[in-house]
Specification:
6 helices, about 110 residues, globular, mainly alpha
Length: about 110
């Protein structure tokens, strides 16, 4: 793994940890939407996560096809370009269902190096 890719994966793990900490005391999508600071911080970090994906080398992404890199980057685009159309329920489901799995996958990549 290139140093650049390694640094980006480390940053992605840190970004996921930030998102999870922002919502640690939030119980559902409605609460997240009402907590505008946490909601905005969460969205900004999802955008940062997608930016990291966009900077990974093609070789790195190809080496780990089990991670849906395109979907992560596409979600970043939705958030960045359609901010007022964001569905809090969708964001919440991604946080609860997908982020822990992504974090584990990225951590496994780092641990294998």
């Amino acid at each position: 793994m290139l140093k650049k890719d390694n640094a980006l994966v480390m940053l992605m793990v840190e970004t996921i940890e930030k998102i999870l900490s922002y919502v640690s005391e939030i119980n559902n999508a409605e609460e997240l939407e009402k907590d505008t600071k946490s909601f905005d911080a969460t969205i900004m970090n999802f955008i940062a996560l997608g930016e990291c994906v966009g900077k990974l080398t093609d070789e790195f992404r190809d080496k780990y096809p089990e991670i849906n890199w395109r979907k992560i980057y596409a979600f970043r685009n939705v958030l960045a370009h359609d901010y007022f159309g964001i569905l809090p329920q969708e964001v919440w489901e991604i946080i609860k269902n997908d982020l822990p799995l992504l974090k584990n996958s990225l951590q496994s990549i780092l641990d294998s190096k």
